[in-house]
């Protein structure tokens, strides 16, 4: 018996029992659709996080003072004064793997413009800070090196600050706002970046020359942190090692001494968030994959019922010359047809559900081709695996006993 006839016989058997075949497919349909949708949501979240981390500066390296022990009590790193302007100057001059370096000193307080006020922190930075954090000026300009040298009272503000201090829609560039009692002239407005993956408003920012914040606002000679950017993302590790060597030399630390500073990179944050997202995606896919197993068990169950119902038919076919391999193939084709048809419907529903989640819930969704192919292959293998044993049982029937079966 050729393959075409076997296929026709299997198809006719399924058509004659449409409802039963559909209910058997249902487990496969739900499983495939669930896997595709869950993977799409997981991959969408991962890409969204990676995009937001990249917008913060994927090559960014952050250097903070390290905690210290004094009298047996560990001190708060923010209270330490281990980072100096000489460290900033050394990193500028001696590093080979950094494209930009900026000091950072901040002071919290109240910004005031007429009757409007808003709580914010003024960050004292250099011009390179915009490159490191991938910020850009939308209107006006950034402060100059001359402003840094003279500790000029100028600043660049974000969109959130503009919305809260200039409520009448006036152009803030050239206007004077006060930080407490100290006036600052606004020289530029940053392009909006919105909220990051941590839920922080990236537009609630005020940037000023670091010398201005150190001398006029905080009256300090140390830095709260240093931001840097590696030449490329692949060079981040080399850059961090180089920074460690330079700072240990500057701070005269001996070989056995602990670092009095901490170095972190965006790469670490990205890896941590990605691993967490991957774990959640895998967990969701495994839960959804259980439906495929349930669907496979349903196929096995129905095939057993089908073999039992058609025992006499099997006996008649074998008595007129059908071989065991023909009977095996016939029932195996039925199982594969059920799983493949269910897989196709599941793929369509899964893709549709993914776009529905994106449009209705506004969640980031990304459908990868491999997830669709993998789901389809798994459901096909499921059909073969769970359909094999009932088909083998049918092929092993004794023709005479099968004909006598009531």
Structural class: alpha+beta
- Helix percentage: 55-70%
Low-confidence stretches: none
Contiguous helical run count: 13
- Oligomeric nature of the chains: single chain
What Rg do the Cα atoms give? Answer: 34 Å
| Total domains | 2
- Main β-sheet: number of strands, strand sense, barrel status? 6 strands, mixed, barrel
What is the typical, i.e. mean, pLDDT? 82
Strand content: 15-25%
Rough shape?
elongated
Give the ordered list of helices and strands: HHEEEHEEHEHEHEEEHEHEHHHHH
Distance between the termini: 26 Å
- The tally of strands reads 12
Strand order of the largest sheet: 4-5-10-7-9-8
Explain what this protein looks like in three dimensions.
The chain is α+β, with helices and mostly antiparallel strands. The protein folds into two domains: 3-52 and 272-404, no CATH class; 81-259, no CATH class. It has helices at 3-15, 18-55, 85-94, 128-132, 145-149, 159-165, 210-218, 236-250, 266-309, 311-319, 324-360, 369-395, 399-404; strands spanning 60-65, 69-70, 73-74, 98-113, 116-125, 137-140, 154-157, 176-179, 182-190, 206-209, 225-230, 261-265. Strands 4-5-10-7-9-8 form a six-stranded mixed barrel. Strand 4 and strand 5 form a beta hairpin. Helix 1 crosses helix 11. The longest helix has 44 residues, at 266-309. The radius of gyration is 34 Å and the shape is elongated. The mean pLDDT is 82.
